Amino acid sequence: MATKIDVPGVALITGAASGIGRATAIAFAQAGCTKFALLDLNEGGLQETKGLVEQSVSATDISVGTYKCDVSSPESVVSAYTAAKEHFTRVDYSVHCAGIIVFGGPSADFPVEDFDRQNSINYRGLWLCCREAIKIMRSQPFDCEAYPDANISSVRAQRGAIVNISSGLALYAQPNCPAYCGAKAGVLALTRCDALDYVADRIRVNAILPGIIDSPMTNPSPEIRAWLESNPVQHTPMKRFGKPEEIADVAVFLAGNKASLVTGASWAVDGGLLAGYN
């Protein structure tokens, strides 16, 4: 179970229909969060996640809103974030999990359309989400004012926190996925820039670098899962897949006030892969 969160505020999660996004929504609920804006293009998956969030805790004051959102579309992102703000009045935590991966070969053979599609979601789409989250957060009161019963000290108070899901492939390479590696590296640079630009607004921005996670995006077929198990997983010191819940628990910590001195950071959650990659 995730660490308890100090402020039971509003958690907005993109890519919430499955995998890390779904696990993150459930982790926030188990940590004590009570209001959720769940975003994804997959409306059926969103409804499943909504049900799982509501079932994961015994609290009766859980409020879950679902919003169809194509993160590659500026209009769709603005619409979803605006609707969430209008419904919940604020956004305390924004966790950006939407992503895809296409193994299209090395750069000389990589189709331009696949490059553009990955960047439109993994980098540009994430930037669009950060942009809207920051617009909302910088105009809202500190959480110590919005939630006085949480007894947040003025030193640890924040207007909001953003967690971007990057990848270990932002820092080391894997063959045949130049667009994915490049986009995830861009997420780290964006995270650092936004952390600096909005630190005076008391908005913290951090990134997580997952390793090889047992999720629908990573394992779209039994054949790919078997290849991963036999190859990159064996380079991981722990020699196992990570679970979406293991990423989600770190996201909850980084978003909450217990991580109040952490901003512009990139946390590897990868079973030691970056420490011992070979």
Automatic annotation (TrEMBL):
One of its GO terms (molecular function) is oxidoreductase activity, acting on the CH-OH group of donors, NAD or NADP as acceptor. Pfam families: adh_short_C2. Keywords: NADP. It comes from the Eukaryota. InterPro entries: NAD(P)-bd_dom_sf (IPR036291), SDR_fam (IPR002347). Belongs to the short-chain dehydrogenases/reductases (SDR) family. PANTHER family: SHORT-CHAIN DEHYDROGENASE_REDUCTASE (PTHR42760:SF124), SHORT-CHAIN DEHYDROGENASES/REDUCTASES FAMILY MEMBER (PTHR42760). This is 3-oxoacyl-[acyl-carrier protein] reductase. It comes from Capronia coronata CBS 617.96.
